[in-house]
Amino acid sequence: MTRSNTPKQLRLIIETDDFDEAVRFYRDVLGMAEQPAFATEGDDRVSILNAGIATIELATPTHVRTIDAIEKAPTTPGPTLRIALEVEDTEAAVSSAREHGAQTLAPATHTPFRTINARVQGPAGWQVTFFQELETLEERATREGFTTDDDRPR
C-alpha cells in the first residue's frame, strides 16, 4: 500500500436489533460523540460515533486467551467481538457502564503491559475492554518483551 492510500479512519459496523439500546450505551454511556450520518426513513437507522484514534489489534487465539487470563475475564470458545477503548480512568469507566446496566466481565486489573484493563458486556454481543495507559509508548519500547512482530523471535 502506498502512503497516499493509507487509511484515514477505521470504522466498525455493529449490526444490532436493539438500535436504541446500542446508541444509548455507546453514545450516552461511553461518551462517543455522534456525527451526522445518512439514512433514509423508517427502520433505516444509523449512528456514526467518534471513538477517537483507532488501531487494529491482530492477535492469535493463544494471545487472546492470554489476555483473557490477565484480565481475569471468562474465556469463550470461538471468536468474540471486542472493542478496546483507552480511557483516563478504567475504574470510573467501568463504574459508569455498570450504572447504566452493563455487566462487568472482568474487574480492573494491572497488566504486565503497564495498563489497567477491565471488561464489560456491551449490547449486540460486543465486549468492551477499558484500558488506562500507565506509561508512554516511548517508555514501553524500552521494556523487555515489547517489540514489533518483525523483531520478535520465533
Summed up:
By secondary structure, the chain is α+β, with helices and mostly antiparallel strands. It has helices at residues 19-29, 61-71, 90-99, 137-141, and strands at residues 33-35, 48-50, 82-86, 103-110, 115-121, 127-133.
Structural description of this entry:
This protein is an alpha+beta fold and 154 residues long. The chain has one domain (3-151): Roll (2,3-Dihydroxybiphenyl 1,2-Dioxygenase, domain 1). Helices cover 24% and strands 21% of the residues. The protein contains four helices and six strands, in the order αββαβαβββα. It has helices at residues 19-29, 61-71, 90-99, 137-141, and strands at 33-35, 48-50, 82-86, 103-110, 115-121, 127-133. The strands form two sheets. It has a four-stranded mixed beta sheet, with helices on one face. The chain is globular, with a radius of gyration of 17 Å. The mean pLDDT is 84.
Name the features.
154 residues, alpha+beta, 2,3-Dihydroxybiphenyl 1,2-Dioxygenase, domain 1, four-stranded mixed sheet, two-stranded antiparallel sheet, 4 helices, 6 strands, 24% helix, 21% strand, globular
Classify the helix fraction into a percent range: 10-25%
Going by CATH, the architecture would be Roll
Shape: globular
Distance between the termini: 26 Å
* CATH fold annotation: 2,3-Dihydroxybiphenyl 1,2-Dioxygenase, domain 1
Sheet with the most strands: spatial strand order: 3-6-5-4
Question: Unreliable runs, pLDDT <50, ≥5 residues?
Answer: none
User: What is the average of the pLDDT values?
Assistant: 84
Give the SSE order as H and E letters: HEEHEHEEEH
